[in-house]
Amino acid sequence: MKNLKIFKGIGLSLLLLGSVSCQEDFLEEKPLSFLSPENTFVDAAGLQTALDAALHGVMTQWNGDTRELMFNSNMSDASVVSATDKPDAFVDLRTYATPTNSRNNDAGRTRSFYADNYNHIKKANTVIDYIDIPEWPDGVNDAERNHLLGSAYFLRAFFYMQLTMDFGNVAFPLGVVSEARRDFKVFHMQGIWDQMITDLEYAVQHVKPKSQLPIGQAPKDAVRILLAKYYMLNERFADAERLMDDVINGGESQLFTDDMIPSGVTEIEVANTNNPNTGNPLPGRSGYAPVDAVNYLHMDRGAQKTSNPEGIWLVVNEPFVLGTQGRSARIRAWGPNFVSTNLGVWEPGTTRIGTDVQQSTSDARGRMMKKWGRGQGFARPTNYSQYEIWNFKGTVDEQDYRHKDLNWFEMEDVLYDNPSLRDEGSPFYMQPLRLYDDNGNLTCQDTIRCWYGYPRYKFYSVNQEQRPDRQDGGKMDMYIMRIAEAYLVRAEARFWQDNLAGAAEDINTIRQRANAIHMYTIADMQTEGIGAILDERNRELFGEEYRHDELVRISIIFAKTGKMAYNGKTYSISGNDIEKSISANSFYYDRMMEKNNFFRDEVPWATYNTTKYTMDPHHVFWPVYQPYLVGNVEATLNQTTGYNGAENNIEPLTHVVQPAGAPNEDPMRAIGE
């Protein structure tokens, strides 16, 4: 393995190497390993180590309170960035969605979506490049070889889907970058998809099924779901439907329903009824909800999720197990910030904080924080997610398990528990929170961050190991893909083929499991079209899917097919540059203006009166952080269309698809560059 001295300013080559920092302190050359690839990757176990490193990249995107999964949702119709203490957040996109905004936290994660994904791709490319260093018993027909190669193809395609949905045309390394390079160029995204399809078609033949893999590894059905999405990008809708038939009928996973709940289980805890530190009861209502298929499916107790038949691909993250991920802190990310020292919920008629901010493991302090969790409100649902999708056919559906009492958190579940209210005899002490006082005045200045409901059943986990005084979410297993999504992907494939009855059937399978009041009819599908599928995805997969990327993918399909959307509009691709066409006019932007009330209405913040939500059509894709481009001095590495620097862009390269099953050539050399 080559030891490289990497200097400041090498741009994307640094990202692809992923081995050093740009800071001067890290320029000192240090040995990475005394092992060469020929010594490291001599067998399946060595290659699995590199594959696991790429797999860990997926888990880091899912796990944690401000990770990529959350930000992707916040750039969609489902939720928004609501870290209202950071005025340069990805909120006022006209002002702050720029190539020079260095934010990479709860207020924006475009940097890590770009840089980290290339680092993860490097690890997958390592497996692909070195797949034939071992002497496989059956040569290129060896089953273990081809499973590892197919798994690396899958993970690489997983990350390239994100890169193309988030940034459009991007650089396209297909091999390990073993030395500093400053000559990267972008490729048309269409060629990237074509290569990923070829690779995934190989992977779907060779990757092992779930029953033959450790939990946490990506199985064959995960490959099928990703390939189906790529197929639909290439208008191969029947092929996508066939793949979902294989997932749904294959027997490896099945939809979890009420009749599968273990005998004797009657309730599921979705909040801490008792102080997890002392075991003593906490005030207010019980945190136990009547058991149903949905809250049991998402229950975070023991290894329930890893054994549940619905799961296809999961993050395994058990408490008190060495080697698992850090705490998920999902309550912290998605829960409202009612516990705050400055802009929380006030006692009605005053500006005194109504809830106790004191962090303590004792029974005396922070009782509502222990019961409901210390949410920080980094991802706030839109009105569409919080209200509109539950009002179907004129009925607000609180029978639907995904929206029923306690499964769905409401602010009124919280009580005023600030000890100062008790000490001064306030009539509101230990009464439910109120949004308005008797005179109709708000009791919460920052309603964006501090007052909303959300599907708590998905995010609840007891914090047992770190900061048990906060209860903002401990370690938890998480679904990356489950079979409910396969039904919704098949519904989409059927919709594109005008099989509205079949699409409604798949949606209704999910709704029946959830005990929803109303079902979709063919007439509903004719009226709502893809909107029906997007609505059901949001009900079922809120906080689980890369929602922005799904909207962009669907936008590209609308533009490629010319099919009329439910809004009466049609979209198109002009020329061969999909990025430019989508950046000018897209279903994504129109959907955002329809469903995301914050961006549509340019809602201002109470914390910074100059900050408001703004968006223009080109924000469908995100800017590439400028320092990642400037060091690529031997070629032009394009900026995303519509952002400063894009005026210097050059024509992207067209990729020539390479056959799967063997290491790749560098695509630039492969076409004579």
TrEMBL record:
Family: Belongs to the SusD family.
Domain (SusD-like N-terminal) ranges: 25-231
Lineage: Bacteria, Pseudomonadati, Bacteroidota, Cytophagia, Cytophagales
Protein name according to UniProt: Starch-binding associating with outer membrane
Keyword list, A-Z: Cell outer membrane, Membrane, Signal
PROSITE patterns: PROKAR_LIPOPROTEIN
Pfam families membership: SusD-like_3 (PF14322), SusD_RagB (PF07980)
Superkingdom of origin organism: Bacteria
This protein's GO CC annotations: cell outer membrane
RagB/SusD domain residues: 390-643
Endpoints of the signal sequence: none
Localisation: Cell outer membrane
InterPro entries: SusD-like_N, SusD_RagB_dom, TPR-like_helical_dom_sf
